[in-house]
Amino acid sequence: MPLNPADDRLASQLPEGVLRPVEDRYLDEPRGRYLGQGGLVAAPRSVEEVAAVVRACAAARVAIVPRGGGTGLVGGSVMPEGPAPLILSLERMARIRDVRPDEDVLVAEAGMTLAAVQDAAHAAGRMFPLALASQGTAQLGGVLGANAGGTAVLRWGNARALCLGIEAVLPDGSILRDLKRLRKDNTGYDLRDLLIGAEGTLGIITAASLRMAPVPAGLATAMLAVPGPAKALALLALAQGRFAGCVTAFELISGVGLDFLAEVLPAIRQPLPGAPWSVLLELSLPQGLAPDAALEGLLEEAMAAGLVTDGALAQSGAQATEFWSLREHLPEANRRIGSVSSHDISLPLSEIPRFLDDAGAMLAAMGDMRINCFGHLGDGNLHYNVFPARGRRREDYDDRRAAIQEAVHQMVVDRAGSFSAEHGVGRLKTADLARWGDPARLAAMRAIKAALDPLGIMNPGAVLA
């Protein structure tokens, strides 16, 4: 049976006071690839109201599109086609329910921004270590729904690794109350892990029990120029060997990215201008290890081994923030330049240098283009973006865009990598998943979707086409 639009008949079945105007902020997405639609917007105040909304939509066979902070980059939070859905926003569910510093656990509702969750942990003398450039806007529900990673995955893992339990509303309107604070719970299928990363296609996450961590005694931050990605990986191994468990972030930055910053964001200070490749390194150190001495010892050994050619060590918190500002402005510089094709990929670490060489040669044979590769080298996640040659426009490459994306993704898959590393599948990559996904895995995913959401109302068109 087809789905129905969210209209006045559905509105009359919803809890009083949950509806909000259908404003543009509920319909757009950062890259402008899709224009969403919505017949109604509901902003419940409690999990019980979320359940009532879902039950009403199930009875009326109306699609539900969950909406977080709208920072996703794969179209997962907008539905451009089909009967106008109900957009479900949890912006009014933004409370801290419980904080237990002695357990390193915090329970937060899904409408809280990631920055607000971090602030709550800080107020308890702890930290919540998941960090994103969009953390001031991105909401916890969306972060969990996409299993976002950010800059500290090397040390702390993706969102899934930092979540102990969840509360969620399933597609029939039943409430899963599983806000456990346990590190170990082997009582059958882990529905928490199933719903995290499902992008709202299996249910609506309304709250989560999250792992906090002690604040490190010291932070050491450095920008280091390296001869190339292979040397950067050797530097990573050296740093992990010297500071086991203390390497928090290891970001790779290409010289093209620095050129883009100089061109469109010249106010961003560059500590190592002109470096063909550089690494932003952060160490979280325990009591007894002085940050300056730790970095100086690492730099001395790395330079002696030919892994580093130059370096800038942050002498203060303000300077460390400045280094991170450079890294976080790389996507903004990319947007201003205008990409031909963008790729969020991950690869086994040992495959990265060869991939970069082979992909660069392949694209050079396809035309005159610039490549800005940067990202989380420590966990294998790269943002591999292709841009017009200087003096040309992205429109000049319209006839090659699809071929470029297919060729890059095929090369990634051939090396046992993933074409969707950090931002999820959404609606942008459903065809890629259908093409390259393991058949048995896809069959299991479809069976799970059919079992939990037999009416097909939960974010239809996302993940599974």
How many beta-strand runs? Answer: 18
- Assembly classification: single chain
| Spans where pLDDT lies below 50 across 5 or more residues | none
Q: How does the overall form come out from the CA principal axes?
A: globular
| Largest beta sheet: strand ordering | 15-12-14-13-17-18-16
Spatial extent as radius of gyration: 23 Å
Task: Profile the largest sheet.
Answer: 7 strands, antiparallel
Q: How far apart, in Å, are the first and last alpha carbons?
A: 17 Å
Mean pLDDT: 96
* Structural class by SSE content: alpha+beta
In terms of DSSP E residues, the strand content is: 15-25%
| Helix percent band | 25-40%
Distinctive features:
465 residues; alpha+beta; seven-stranded antiparallel sheet; five-stranded antiparallel sheet; 21% strand; globular
Account of the 3D structure:
It contains 15 helices and 18 strands. The chain is α+β, with helices and mostly antiparallel strands. A hairpin with a 4-residue loop joins strand 5 and strand 6. The two termini are 17 Å apart. The mean pLDDT is 96.
Draw up the topology in text.
Layout: H1 8-11, E1 19-20, E2 40-42, H2 47-60, E3 64-67, E4 86-89, E5 96-100, E6 105-109, H3 114-123, E7 126-127, H4 140-145, H5 153-156, E8 163-169, E9 175-178, H6 191-195, E10 204-211, E11 213-214, E12 218-226, H7 229-242, E13 247-254, H8 255-264, E14 277-285, H9 291-304, E15 310-313, H10 317-328, H11 330-337, E16 341-346, H12 352-366, E17 369-376, E18 381-388, H13 401-414, H14 430-436, H15 439-452
Parallel strand pairs: 2-4, 3-4
Antiparallel strand pairs: 1-2, 5-6, 6-10, 7-11, 8-9, 8-10, 12-14, 12-15, 13-14, 13-17, 16-18, 17-18
Helix pairs in contact: 8-11, 12-13
